[in-house]
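>> received
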Amino acid sequence: MDEPFVTTRQMGEQVDTIYALAVKFSKNYWNILKGHLDDSHADTNTNSTNIRKTCEDFKLYMPQFRDRLNDEKLQDPNAAAYKSAAQMYISNLEAIANNMLLYLDNPTDTKASASYQQGINLIPDYEASITTERTQYLKLAGFTDEEIKTLFATTGYSDTEAPSSNETASQPSETSDSEAEPSDIAEESAPETSPAETTPEEETPTVDPAPESTVSTPSEQSVSTSPMVYRTKSGSKYHDNPHCNGGTYFECTLDEALSRGSQPCKKCVR
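>> returned
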């Protein structure tokens, strides 16, 4: 009989860092999209163009964030439920964007409209599931309640608090039509995105704003659309894994790393 896998604090921290940042980056994109959906004062054509551009960014970056969860060096069987919750959250956001694009292309597509709205309504349930599974995993790795709260605070969960040991959160009760199985999109073949073109003769469809019951968006939040990576202050390489080679790294955008002449690490950047 095989011995059960033991999750060390070091492994737990490494896995949590990768998983939590993938969720954080995905949530940042959702906050950008929600801001456009809530912007009732914007010009209709301009706002629809912004929504379309952000949805195209979802299609480009969500698969990359999901791929971060599959780092072969950080496969912990005890993190399976945490990983699954994060994957479903990211896939749901990607499906929302896909259905929103279908609706923008065809405003009579009531199925696409209903699907993206249902996906938006499910976001709080998915976030609650991540909170629960993340907390349970960190406890298994030996972290205390106070340490877990600190980890939540340092990874961008500004509107989600770590539950106490006697709190639980339920998994989403239904599967949305928008919750399509994610397809593997190679980073090299990711399409170039550009704002949708409109002419004065065309009437650009508007997308219904996100329901008030969904996740709140900070009033002042500016998020770069460039993926986040890690680099040393003087290093020539940038990394996807903040623990690569045991160095001390600082988070920055991919654009910033490239502008400083940094090259991708051959070990952790796919």
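>> Residues 226-270 form one domain.
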